[in-house]
Amino acid sequence: xxxxxxxxxxxxxxxxxxxxxxxxxxxxxxxxxxxxxxxxxxxxxxxxxxxxxxxxxxxxxxxxxxxxxxxxxxxxxxxxxxxxxxxx
Amino acid sequence: xxxxxxxxxxxxxxxxxxxxxxxxxxxxxxxxxxxxxxxxxxxxxxxxxxxxxxxxxxxxxxxxxxxxxxxxxxxxxxxxxxxxxxxxxxxxxxxxxxxxxxxxxxxxxxxxxxxxxxxxxxxxxxxxxxxxxxxxxxxxxxxxxxxxxxxxxxxxxxxxxxxxxxxxxxxxxxxxxxxxxxxxxxxxxxxxxxxxxxxxxxxxxxxxxxxxxxxxxxxxxxxxxxxxxxxxxxxxxxxxxxxxxxxxxxxxxxxxxxxxxxxxxxxxxxxxxxxxxxxxxxxxxxxxxxxxxxxxxxxxxxxxxxxxxxxxxxxxxxxxxxxxxxxxxxxxxxxxxxxxxxxxxxxxxxxxxxxxxxxxxxxxxxxxxxxxxxxxxxxxxxxxxxxxxxxxxxxxxxxxxxxxxxxxxxxxxxxxxxxxxxxxxxxxxxxxxxxxxxxxxxxxxxxxxxxxxxxxxxxxx
Lengths: 88, 461
Ligand code: FES
Description:
The structure holds 2 protein chains of 2 kinds.
Chain A: E1 4-9, H1 12-22, H2 25-28, E2 37-42, E3 59-61, E4 65-67, H3 72-83
Parallel strand pairs in A: 1-2
Antiparallel strand pairs in A: 1-3, 3-4
Chain B: H1 2-9, H2 13-16, H3 20-24, H4 36-50, H5 65-77, E1 96-98, E2 110-113, H6 124-128, E3 134-137, E4 140-143, H7 153-157, E5 163-166, H8 169-173, E6 179-181, E7 187-189, H9 199-203, E8 209-211, H10 215-223, E9 228-232, H11 244-253, E10 258-261, H12 262-282, E11 288-289, H13 294-303, H14 317-328, E12 333-338, H15 342-350, E13 354-357, H16 358-367, H17 386-389, H18 396-405, E14 416-420, H19 426-434, E15 442-446
Parallel strand pairs in B: 9-10, 9-12, 11-15, 12-13, 14-15
Antiparallel strand pairs in B: 1-8, 2-5, 3-4, 6-7
FE2/S2 (inorganic) cluster (FES) binds next to helix 1 of chain A.
Protein backbone atom coordinates (compact mmCIF):
# COMPACT_ATOMS: atom_id res chain seq x y z
CA UNK A 1 0.00 0.00 0.00
CA UNK A 2 1.09 3.53 -0.75
CA UNK A 3 0.81 6.68 1.31
CA UNK A 4 -1.87 9.20 0.39
CA UNK A 5 -2.40 12.72 1.65
CA UNK A 6 -5.90 14.14 1.57
CA UNK A 7 -6.30 17.87 2.04
CA UNK A 8 -9.83 19.03 2.60
CA UNK A 9 -10.56 22.67 1.91
CA UNK A 10 -12.32 24.24 4.85
CA UNK A 11 -12.57 27.69 3.36
CA UNK A 12 -15.97 29.29 3.77
CA UNK A 13 -17.31 28.37 0.34
CA UNK A 14 -16.18 24.75 0.43
CA UNK A 15 -17.33 24.32 4.00
CA UNK A 16 -20.81 25.56 3.20
CA UNK A 17 -21.11 23.49 0.10
CA UNK A 18 -20.27 20.26 1.81
CA UNK A 19 -16.70 19.93 3.03
CA UNK A 20 -18.07 20.10 6.58
CA UNK A 21 -19.36 16.59 6.01
CA UNK A 22 -16.03 15.42 4.61
CA UNK A 23 -14.35 16.16 7.91
CA UNK A 24 -15.67 12.86 9.20
CA UNK A 25 -13.59 11.10 6.53
CA UNK A 26 -11.24 9.69 9.13
CA UNK A 27 -14.03 7.64 10.69
CA UNK A 28 -15.13 6.34 7.32
CA UNK A 29 -11.78 4.93 6.29
CA UNK A 30 -11.47 1.16 6.26
CA UNK A 31 -9.09 0.00 9.05
CA UNK A 32 -6.43 -1.29 6.70
CA UNK A 33 -6.03 2.10 4.96
CA UNK A 34 -5.78 4.16 8.07
CA UNK A 35 -2.02 4.16 8.59
CA UNK A 36 -1.41 5.16 4.99
CA UNK A 37 -3.84 8.03 4.75
CA UNK A 38 -3.05 11.43 6.17
CA UNK A 39 -5.92 13.91 6.40
CA UNK A 40 -5.54 17.66 6.72
CA UNK A 41 -8.00 20.51 6.83
CA UNK A 42 -6.80 23.61 4.99
CA UNK A 43 -7.99 27.19 4.61
CA UNK A 44 -9.29 28.38 1.23
CA UNK A 45 -7.26 26.85 -1.60
CA UNK A 46 -8.22 29.77 -3.83
CA UNK A 47 -9.98 27.55 -6.27
CA UNK A 48 -13.48 28.69 -5.47
CA UNK A 49 -13.14 32.12 -7.08
CA UNK A 50 -12.73 30.98 -10.64
CA UNK A 51 -14.90 28.26 -12.01
CA UNK A 52 -11.98 26.85 -14.02
CA UNK A 53 -11.42 23.69 -12.03
CA UNK A 54 -15.06 23.04 -11.28
CA UNK A 55 -17.19 23.78 -8.27
CA UNK A 56 -16.63 23.65 -4.52
CA UNK A 57 -16.06 21.71 -2.32
CA UNK A 58 -12.48 20.94 -3.30
CA UNK A 59 -10.20 18.23 -2.03
CA UNK A 60 -6.51 17.96 -2.90
CA UNK A 61 -4.93 14.54 -3.10
CA UNK A 62 -1.19 13.94 -2.87
CA UNK A 63 -0.50 17.69 -3.06
CA UNK A 64 -1.27 17.88 -6.76
CA UNK A 65 -4.49 16.26 -7.76
CA UNK A 66 -7.56 18.50 -7.36
CA UNK A 67 -10.98 16.97 -6.96
CA UNK A 68 -13.90 19.40 -7.46
CA UNK A 69 -17.42 18.75 -6.12
CA UNK A 70 -15.97 16.27 -3.70
CA UNK A 71 -18.28 13.88 -1.92
CA UNK A 72 -17.51 11.21 0.62
CA UNK A 73 -18.01 8.43 -1.95
CA UNK A 74 -15.84 10.10 -4.57
CA UNK A 75 -13.05 10.75 -2.11
CA UNK A 76 -13.15 7.23 -0.68
CA UNK A 77 -13.12 5.68 -4.13
CA UNK A 78 -10.17 7.79 -5.18
CA UNK A 79 -8.23 7.02 -2.01
CA UNK A 80 -8.87 3.36 -2.67
CA UNK A 81 -7.24 3.68 -6.10
CA UNK A 82 -4.31 5.64 -4.72
CA UNK A 83 -3.41 3.40 -1.77
CA UNK A 84 -3.50 0.36 -3.98
CA UNK A 85 -1.65 1.86 -6.94
CA UNK A 86 1.44 -0.05 -7.96
CA UNK A 87 3.45 2.41 -10.01
CA UNK A 88 7.05 3.26 -9.09
CA UNK B 1 -26.55 32.64 -3.49
CA UNK B 2 -22.79 33.02 -3.50
CA UNK B 3 -22.97 34.01 -7.14
CA UNK B 4 -25.58 36.60 -6.31
CA UNK B 5 -23.44 38.18 -3.62
CA UNK B 6 -20.28 38.10 -5.67
CA UNK B 7 -22.08 39.89 -8.50
CA UNK B 8 -23.31 42.48 -6.03
CA UNK B 9 -19.78 43.25 -4.93
CA UNK B 10 -18.55 43.47 -8.46
CA UNK B 11 -21.30 45.98 -9.11
CA UNK B 12 -22.81 43.88 -11.86
CA UNK B 13 -25.76 42.40 -10.04
CA UNK B 14 -28.40 44.44 -11.80
CA UNK B 15 -26.99 43.57 -15.18
CA UNK B 16 -26.42 39.89 -14.53
CA UNK B 17 -29.35 39.08 -12.31
CA UNK B 18 -31.61 37.80 -15.04
CA UNK B 19 -28.82 35.70 -16.50
CA UNK B 20 -28.06 33.79 -13.33
CA UNK B 21 -30.75 31.13 -13.87
CA UNK B 22 -29.45 30.51 -17.37
CA UNK B 23 -25.84 30.37 -16.29
CA UNK B 24 -26.70 27.97 -13.52
CA UNK B 25 -28.55 25.64 -15.88
CA UNK B 26 -26.84 25.97 -19.24
CA UNK B 27 -28.28 24.39 -22.36
CA UNK B 28 -26.31 21.17 -22.30
CA UNK B 29 -26.08 20.88 -18.55
CA UNK B 30 -28.02 18.56 -16.31
CA UNK B 31 -31.31 19.48 -14.73
CA UNK B 32 -32.57 18.46 -11.33
CA UNK B 33 -36.24 18.66 -12.32
CA UNK B 34 -37.96 17.67 -15.53
CA UNK B 35 -35.94 20.04 -17.69
CA UNK B 36 -33.55 22.97 -17.46
CA UNK B 37 -36.37 25.42 -18.17
CA UNK B 38 -38.28 24.33 -15.14
CA UNK B 39 -35.10 24.61 -13.08
CA UNK B 40 -34.48 28.10 -14.38
CA UNK B 41 -37.98 29.20 -13.46
CA UNK B 42 -37.51 27.96 -9.92
CA UNK B 43 -34.10 29.60 -9.62
CA UNK B 44 -35.71 32.84 -10.67
CA UNK B 45 -38.08 32.58 -7.73
CA UNK B 46 -35.22 31.80 -5.40
CA UNK B 47 -33.48 34.95 -6.59
CA UNK B 48 -36.67 36.92 -6.17
CA UNK B 49 -36.83 35.86 -2.54
CA UNK B 50 -33.19 36.79 -2.13
CA UNK B 51 -34.12 40.23 -3.40
CA UNK B 52 -36.63 40.32 -0.58
CA UNK B 53 -39.71 39.77 -2.69
CA UNK B 54 -41.82 36.81 -1.66
CA UNK B 55 -43.74 34.68 -4.14
CA UNK B 56 -46.94 36.27 -2.86
CA UNK B 57 -45.79 39.69 -3.92
CA UNK B 58 -45.42 38.82 -7.57
CA UNK B 59 -48.00 40.69 -9.56
CA UNK B 60 -46.51 40.59 -13.01
CA UNK B 61 -44.82 37.39 -14.09
CA UNK B 62 -42.93 39.11 -16.88
CA UNK B 63 -41.24 41.56 -14.57
CA UNK B 64 -37.48 41.23 -14.71
CA UNK B 65 -35.44 40.54 -11.63
CA UNK B 66 -33.36 43.59 -12.43
CA UNK B 67 -36.46 45.72 -12.00
CA UNK B 68 -37.08 44.35 -8.54
CA UNK B 69 -33.47 45.11 -7.76
CA UNK B 70 -33.75 48.67 -9.00
CA UNK B 71 -36.85 49.30 -6.93
CA UNK B 72 -35.13 47.99 -3.85
CA UNK B 73 -31.98 50.02 -4.42
CA UNK B 74 -33.99 53.20 -5.00
CA UNK B 75 -36.03 52.65 -1.90
CA UNK B 76 -32.84 52.15 0.05
CA UNK B 77 -31.21 55.33 -1.19
CA UNK B 78 -34.38 57.24 -0.40
CA UNK B 79 -34.03 55.45 2.94
CA UNK B 80 -37.70 54.80 3.29
CA UNK B 81 -38.74 52.55 6.07
CA UNK B 82 -39.17 49.09 4.50
CA UNK B 83 -42.67 48.29 5.72
CA UNK B 84 -44.88 49.54 8.42
CA UNK B 85 -45.62 47.01 11.08
CA UNK B 86 -49.36 47.46 10.83
CA UNK B 87 -49.31 45.33 7.73
CA UNK B 88 -49.25 42.28 9.98
CA UNK B 89 -51.25 39.41 8.59
CA UNK B 90 -50.54 40.62 5.10
CA UNK B 91 -49.19 37.62 3.19
CA UNK B 92 -46.68 39.84 1.42
CA UNK B 93 -45.00 40.68 4.70
CA UNK B 94 -44.82 37.11 5.86
CA UNK B 95 -41.38 35.50 5.54
CA UNK B 96 -42.69 32.25 4.07
CA UNK B 97 -44.39 31.66 0.77
CA UNK B 98 -45.08 28.75 -1.54
CA UNK B 99 -43.45 28.78 -4.94
CA UNK B 100 -45.97 27.14 -7.22
CA UNK B 101 -43.44 26.51 -9.92
CA UNK B 102 -41.39 24.41 -7.54
CA UNK B 103 -44.22 22.64 -5.74
CA UNK B 104 -44.56 19.17 -7.18
CA UNK B 105 -48.20 19.02 -6.20
CA UNK B 106 -47.66 15.88 -4.20
CA UNK B 107 -50.77 13.73 -4.19
CA UNK B 108 -52.88 14.51 -1.17
CA UNK B 109 -52.62 12.27 1.82
CA UNK B 110 -54.44 8.96 1.27
CA UNK B 111 -54.46 5.42 2.56
CA UNK B 112 -53.78 3.03 -0.32
CA UNK B 113 -53.47 -0.69 -0.81
CA UNK B 114 -50.26 -1.55 -2.60
CA UNK B 115 -49.39 -4.49 -4.83
CA UNK B 116 -48.24 -6.38 -1.75
CA UNK B 117 -51.82 -7.30 -0.91
CA UNK B 118 -52.18 -11.10 -1.06
CA UNK B 119 -55.94 -11.12 -0.89
CA UNK B 120 -55.83 -13.31 2.21
CA UNK B 121 -58.84 -15.13 3.67
CA UNK B 122 -58.96 -13.72 7.13
CA UNK B 123 -59.09 -10.12 5.84
CA UNK B 124 -57.80 -8.40 8.96
CA UNK B 125 -57.97 -5.04 7.20
CA UNK B 126 -61.68 -5.37 6.59
CA UNK B 127 -62.38 -6.19 10.21
CA UNK B 128 -60.09 -3.48 11.48
CA UNK B 129 -61.82 -0.77 9.50
CA UNK B 130 -64.32 1.11 11.66
CA UNK B 131 -65.89 2.67 8.56
CA UNK B 132 -66.40 -0.52 6.59
CA UNK B 133 -64.55 1.18 3.78
CA UNK B 134 -62.68 -1.92 2.67
CA UNK B 135 -64.04 -4.54 0.36
CA UNK B 136 -62.40 -7.22 -1.71
CA UNK B 137 -62.45 -6.73 -5.45
CA UNK B 138 -60.65 -9.19 -7.72
CA UNK B 139 -59.07 -10.85 -4.67
CA UNK B 140 -57.47 -7.63 -3.55
CA UNK B 141 -58.54 -5.30 -0.79
CA UNK B 142 -59.86 -2.01 -2.06
CA UNK B 143 -60.52 1.14 -0.10
CA UNK B 144 -63.55 3.27 -0.74
CA UNK B 145 -62.10 6.72 -0.47
CA UNK B 146 -65.40 8.37 0.27
CA UNK B 147 -65.75 6.30 3.41
CA UNK B 148 -62.11 6.21 4.51
CA UNK B 149 -61.25 8.49 7.41
CA UNK B 150 -57.51 7.77 7.22
CA UNK B 151 -57.40 6.37 10.73
CA UNK B 152 -54.70 3.91 9.75
CA UNK B 153 -56.13 0.90 11.60
CA UNK B 154 -55.92 -1.26 8.48
CA UNK B 155 -52.28 -0.32 8.07
CA UNK B 156 -51.30 -1.92 11.35
CA UNK B 157 -53.69 -4.84 10.84
CA UNK B 158 -52.21 -6.05 7.56
CA UNK B 159 -49.69 -8.86 8.12
CA UNK B 160 -48.03 -8.11 4.76
CA UNK B 161 -47.54 -4.38 5.32
CA UNK B 162 -49.47 -3.95 2.12
CA UNK B 163 -51.36 -0.82 3.11
CA UNK B 164 -49.58 2.49 3.33
CA UNK B 165 -50.44 6.07 3.97
CA UNK B 166 -49.07 8.53 1.46
CA UNK B 167 -48.20 11.82 3.03
CA UNK B 168 -47.62 15.37 2.02
CA UNK B 169 -44.40 16.41 3.78
CA UNK B 170 -45.33 20.04 4.32
CA UNK B 171 -48.78 19.22 5.69
CA UNK B 172 -47.31 16.60 7.94
CA UNK B 173 -44.61 18.93 9.21
CA UNK B 174 -46.91 21.82 10.04
CA UNK B 175 -47.87 21.75 13.71
CA UNK B 176 -50.85 24.06 13.28
CA UNK B 177 -52.29 22.70 10.02
CA UNK B 178 -51.70 26.05 8.42
CA UNK B 179 -50.39 24.67 5.15
CA UNK B 180 -52.60 22.62 2.97
CA UNK B 181 -53.32 21.47 -0.49
CA UNK B 182 -56.52 22.32 -2.24
CA UNK B 183 -58.37 20.05 -4.68
CA UNK B 184 -56.31 21.25 -7.60
CA UNK B 185 -53.14 20.27 -5.81
CA UNK B 186 -52.11 23.84 -5.11
CA UNK B 187 -50.51 24.40 -1.78
CA UNK B 188 -51.43 27.43 0.25
CA UNK B 189 -50.43 28.76 3.62
CA UNK B 190 -53.13 30.05 5.90
CA UNK B 191 -51.35 33.03 7.38
CA UNK B 192 -53.85 33.40 10.16
CA UNK B 193 -52.58 30.10 11.53
CA UNK B 194 -48.94 30.07 10.42
CA UNK B 195 -46.52 30.50 13.29
CA UNK B 196 -43.45 30.63 11.03
CA UNK B 197 -41.81 27.68 12.74
CA UNK B 198 -40.21 26.91 9.40
CA UNK B 199 -40.90 23.17 9.55
CA UNK B 200 -42.40 23.11 6.07
CA UNK B 201 -39.41 25.00 4.72
CA UNK B 202 -37.07 22.39 6.13
CA UNK B 203 -39.19 19.39 5.18
CA UNK B 204 -40.30 20.10 1.60
CA UNK B 205 -38.09 17.89 -0.57
CA UNK B 206 -38.71 20.12 -3.57
CA UNK B 207 -37.64 23.32 -1.78
CA UNK B 208 -40.94 24.84 -2.80
CA UNK B 209 -41.36 26.81 0.39
CA UNK B 210 -39.30 29.94 0.16
CA UNK B 211 -38.10 32.36 2.71
CA UNK B 212 -38.07 36.03 1.99
CA UNK B 213 -34.54 37.25 2.51
CA UNK B 214 -33.11 40.50 3.75
CA UNK B 215 -29.68 39.81 2.45
CA UNK B 216 -29.92 42.51 -0.19
CA UNK B 217 -31.18 45.05 2.33
CA UNK B 218 -28.17 44.30 4.49
CA UNK B 219 -25.74 44.44 1.58
CA UNK B 220 -27.16 47.77 0.43
CA UNK B 221 -27.08 49.20 3.93
CA UNK B 222 -23.47 48.11 4.40
CA UNK B 223 -22.54 49.63 1.09
CA UNK B 224 -24.23 52.87 2.02
CA UNK B 225 -21.98 52.97 5.05
CA UNK B 226 -24.69 52.58 7.66
CA UNK B 227 -23.66 51.50 11.13
CA UNK B 228 -24.84 47.94 11.35
CA UNK B 229 -24.34 45.82 14.43
CA UNK B 230 -24.46 42.07 13.94
CA UNK B 231 -25.92 40.19 16.88
CA UNK B 232 -25.18 36.51 16.57
CA UNK B 233 -27.27 33.77 18.13
CA UNK B 234 -25.44 31.24 20.30
CA UNK B 235 -26.48 28.45 17.97
CA UNK B 236 -23.88 29.76 15.51
CA UNK B 237 -21.30 27.55 17.14
CA UNK B 238 -20.28 24.83 14.71
CA UNK B 239 -22.53 26.16 11.95
CA UNK B 240 -19.70 27.69 10.02
CA UNK B 241 -16.03 26.77 9.93
CA UNK B 242 -13.65 27.96 12.60
CA UNK B 243 -14.30 28.96 16.18
CA UNK B 244 -16.99 31.37 17.23
CA UNK B 245 -14.35 34.03 17.91
CA UNK B 246 -12.98 33.66 14.38
CA UNK B 247 -16.49 33.90 13.01
CA UNK B 248 -16.95 37.22 14.80
CA UNK B 249 -13.84 38.63 13.15
CA UNK B 250 -15.04 37.37 9.79
CA UNK B 251 -18.41 39.05 10.28
CA UNK B 252 -16.82 42.33 11.25
CA UNK B 253 -14.77 42.15 8.06
CA UNK B 254 -17.99 42.11 6.07
CA UNK B 255 -18.30 45.71 7.09
CA UNK B 256 -20.33 45.47 10.26
CA UNK B 257 -19.62 48.20 12.73
CA UNK B 258 -19.67 45.85 15.69
CA UNK B 259 -20.46 42.24 16.52
CA UNK B 260 -22.19 41.04 19.66
CA UNK B 261 -23.31 37.77 21.16
CA UNK B 262 -27.04 37.31 21.60
CA UNK B 263 -26.02 35.39 24.71
CA UNK B 264 -25.44 38.79 26.35
CA UNK B 265 -29.12 39.51 25.96
CA UNK B 266 -29.87 35.99 27.16
CA UNK B 267 -28.21 36.84 30.49
CA UNK B 268 -30.69 39.68 30.88
CA UNK B 269 -33.55 37.44 29.88
CA UNK B 270 -32.69 34.88 32.55
CA UNK B 271 -32.37 37.55 35.19
CA UNK B 272 -35.69 39.17 34.36
CA UNK B 273 -37.46 35.91 33.86
CA UNK B 274 -36.29 34.64 37.24
CA UNK B 275 -37.48 37.83 38.91
CA UNK B 276 -40.76 37.74 37.05
CA UNK B 277 -41.31 34.14 38.06
CA UNK B 278 -40.85 34.90 41.73
CA UNK B 279 -43.17 37.86 41.49
CA UNK B 280 -45.88 35.90 39.73
CA UNK B 281 -45.70 33.04 42.17
CA UNK B 282 -45.83 35.44 45.08
CA UNK B 283 -49.03 36.80 43.57
CA UNK B 284 -50.44 33.31 43.60
CA UNK B 285 -50.21 32.54 39.90
CA UNK B 286 -49.90 28.92 38.94
CA UNK B 287 -47.96 28.86 35.71
CA UNK B 288 -45.46 30.87 33.74
CA UNK B 289 -44.01 29.90 30.38
CA UNK B 290 -40.89 31.12 28.63
CA UNK B 291 -41.11 33.75 25.94
CA UNK B 292 -37.88 33.42 24.01
CA UNK B 293 -39.09 31.11 21.25
CA UNK B 294 -40.77 33.35 18.69
CA UNK B 295 -42.67 30.53 17.02
CA UNK B 296 -44.20 29.55 20.34
CA UNK B 297 -45.20 33.11 21.16
CA UNK B 298 -46.65 33.43 17.68
CA UNK B 299 -48.65 30.26 18.22
CA UNK B 300 -50.16 31.52 21.45
CA UNK B 301 -50.90 34.89 19.90
CA UNK B 302 -52.63 33.47 16.87
CA UNK B 303 -54.22 30.29 18.10
CA UNK B 304 -54.69 30.51 21.85
CA UNK B 305 -54.76 34.18 22.83
CA UNK B 306 -56.37 33.34 26.14
CA UNK B 307 -53.12 31.64 27.14
CA UNK B 308 -51.10 34.82 26.65
CA UNK B 309 -51.23 35.91 30.28
CA UNK B 310 -49.17 32.86 31.18
CA UNK B 311 -46.39 33.76 28.77
CA UNK B 312 -43.59 35.64 30.44
CA UNK B 313 -43.50 39.28 29.46
CA UNK B 314 -39.71 39.28 29.54
CA UNK B 315 -38.23 40.30 26.20
CA UNK B 316 -36.31 37.65 24.29
CA UNK B 317 -32.51 37.56 24.16
CA UNK B 318 -32.63 39.07 20.68
CA UNK B 319 -34.55 42.09 21.98
CA UNK B 320 -32.30 42.59 24.98
CA UNK B 321 -29.21 42.36 22.82
CA UNK B 322 -30.66 44.88 20.39
CA UNK B 323 -31.30 47.15 23.34
CA UNK B 324 -27.69 46.84 24.50
CA UNK B 325 -26.45 47.54 20.99
CA UNK B 326 -28.62 50.63 20.66
CA UNK B 327 -27.56 51.89 24.05
CA UNK B 328 -23.88 51.56 23.23
CA UNK B 329 -24.04 52.70 19.63
CA UNK B 330 -27.01 55.04 19.46
CA UNK B 331 -27.42 55.44 15.71
CA UNK B 332 -26.90 51.82 14.75
CA UNK B 333 -29.15 49.34 13.02
CA UNK B 334 -29.34 45.83 14.41
CA UNK B 335 -28.97 42.69 12.32
CA UNK B 336 -29.90 39.46 14.06
CA UNK B 337 -28.17 36.36 12.71
CA UNK B 338 -29.68 33.01 13.62
CA UNK B 339 -31.28 29.79 12.38
CA UNK B 340 -34.88 30.89 12.81
CA UNK B 341 -37.76 31.93 10.57
CA UNK B 342 -40.08 33.06 13.33
CA UNK B 343 -37.50 35.58 14.53
CA UNK B 344 -38.20 37.47 11.32
CA UNK B 345 -41.74 38.02 12.50
CA UNK B 346 -40.66 39.00 15.99
CA UNK B 347 -38.12 41.39 14.47
CA UNK B 348 -40.75 42.93 12.21
CA UNK B 349 -43.09 43.43 15.08
CA UNK B 350 -40.67 44.66 17.67
CA UNK B 351 -38.32 46.63 15.51
CA UNK B 352 -35.08 44.75 14.99
CA UNK B 353 -33.88 46.10 11.69
CA UNK B 354 -32.83 42.97 9.81
CA UNK B 355 -32.62 39.23 10.24
CA UNK B 356 -30.23 36.93 8.41
CA UNK B 357 -29.87 33.18 8.67
CA UNK B 358 -26.62 31.23 8.76
CA UNK B 359 -26.87 30.24 5.15
CA UNK B 360 -27.11 33.87 4.12
CA UNK B 361 -24.24 34.78 6.38
CA UNK B 362 -22.14 31.96 4.97
CA UNK B 363 -22.90 33.08 1.44
CA UNK B 364 -21.96 36.66 2.29
CA UNK B 365 -18.62 35.47 3.66
CA UNK B 366 -17.94 33.21 0.72
CA UNK B 367 -19.10 35.86 -1.74
CA UNK B 368 -16.52 38.27 -0.38
CA UNK B 369 -13.85 35.62 -0.15
CA UNK B 370 -13.52 35.84 3.61
CA UNK B 371 -11.97 32.68 4.95
CA UNK B 372 -13.21 32.11 8.47
CA UNK B 373 -10.51 29.70 9.59
CA UNK B 374 -7.75 32.11 8.59
CA UNK B 375 -9.28 34.90 10.70
CA UNK B 376 -7.76 36.07 13.96
CA UNK B 377 -9.95 35.29 16.94
CA UNK B 378 -12.13 38.20 17.99
CA UNK B 379 -11.52 39.67 21.41
CA UNK B 380 -14.80 39.51 23.24
CA UNK B 381 -14.94 42.46 25.54
CA UNK B 382 -17.48 40.75 27.72
CA UNK B 383 -17.83 37.05 27.10
CA UNK B 384 -21.30 35.81 28.00
CA UNK B 385 -21.68 33.24 30.73
CA UNK B 386 -22.01 29.62 29.61
CA UNK B 387 -25.60 29.21 30.75
CA UNK B 388 -26.59 32.10 28.49
CA UNK B 389 -24.78 30.51 25.57
CA UNK B 390 -26.78 27.39 26.23
CA UNK B 391 -30.13 29.01 25.48
CA UNK B 392 -30.04 27.45 22.08
CA UNK B 393 -30.44 23.95 23.46
CA UNK B 394 -33.62 22.54 24.96
CA UNK B 395 -33.83 23.05 28.67
CA UNK B 396 -31.10 25.68 28.43
CA UNK B 397 -33.49 28.47 29.35
CA UNK B 398 -34.80 26.67 32.39
CA UNK B 399 -31.31 25.92 33.64
CA UNK B 400 -30.27 29.53 33.23
CA UNK B 401 -33.38 30.82 34.96
CA UNK B 402 -32.88 28.35 37.80
CA UNK B 403 -29.33 29.56 38.22
CA UNK B 404 -30.51 33.14 38.37
CA UNK B 405 -33.48 32.49 40.59
CA UNK B 406 -31.20 31.41 43.42
CA UNK B 407 -33.08 30.88 46.63
CA UNK B 408 -36.80 30.89 46.30
CA UNK B 409 -38.99 31.95 49.18
CA UNK B 410 -40.00 29.23 51.65
CA UNK B 411 -42.40 26.69 50.31
CA UNK B 412 -41.79 27.54 46.68
CA UNK B 413 -40.27 25.38 44.08
CA UNK B 414 -39.49 25.91 40.49
CA UNK B 415 -41.03 22.87 39.00
CA UNK B 416 -40.20 22.79 35.32
CA UNK B 417 -41.55 21.04 32.28
CA UNK B 418 -40.36 21.23 28.70
CA UNK B 419 -42.08 21.08 25.40
CA UNK B 420 -39.24 20.06 23.17
CA UNK B 421 -40.54 20.66 19.68
CA UNK B 422 -43.98 21.98 18.81
CA UNK B 423 -46.06 19.39 16.97
CA UNK B 424 -49.69 18.59 16.21
CA UNK B 425 -50.38 17.76 19.84
CA UNK B 426 -48.91 20.86 21.42
CA UNK B 427 -51.93 23.07 21.01
CA UNK B 428 -54.22 20.52 22.64
CA UNK B 429 -51.74 20.19 25.48
CA UNK B 430 -51.66 23.91 26.10
CA UNK B 431 -55.44 23.94 26.17
CA UNK B 432 -55.36 21.28 28.87
CA UNK B 433 -52.92 23.36 30.89
CA UNK B 434 -55.15 26.33 30.48
CA UNK B 435 -58.06 24.33 31.82
CA UNK B 436 -56.06 23.75 34.97
CA UNK B 437 -54.31 20.44 34.35
CA UNK B 438 -50.95 21.78 35.30
CA UNK B 439 -47.90 19.61 35.12
CA UNK B 440 -45.60 22.23 36.58
CA UNK B 441 -45.36 25.91 37.34
CA UNK B 442 -42.64 26.72 34.85
CA UNK B 443 -42.95 25.67 31.24
CA UNK B 444 -40.25 25.99 28.63
CA UNK B 445 -41.39 25.71 25.04
CA UNK B 446 -39.08 25.31 22.08
CA UNK B 447 -40.55 25.04 18.63
CA UNK B 448 -37.63 23.03 17.31
CA UNK B 449 -36.84 19.66 18.87
CA UNK B 450 -33.52 20.02 20.64
CA UNK B 451 -33.77 23.80 20.61
CA UNK B 452 -32.56 26.53 18.28
CA UNK B 453 -29.50 24.51 17.30
CA UNK B 454 -31.89 22.47 15.18
CA UNK B 455 -33.60 25.50 13.73
CA UNK B 456 -35.13 25.29 10.26
CA UNK B 457 -32.30 27.32 8.75
CA UNK B 458 -29.45 25.66 10.57
CA UNK B 459 -26.88 24.28 8.20
CA UNK B 460 -25.80 21.06 9.82
CA UNK B 461 -28.47 18.48 10.22
S1 FES C 1 -13.13 27.82 -0.06
FE1 FES C 1 -12.32 26.03 -0.88
S2 FES C 1 -11.21 26.82 -2.49
FE2 FES C 1 -11.92 28.60 -1.58
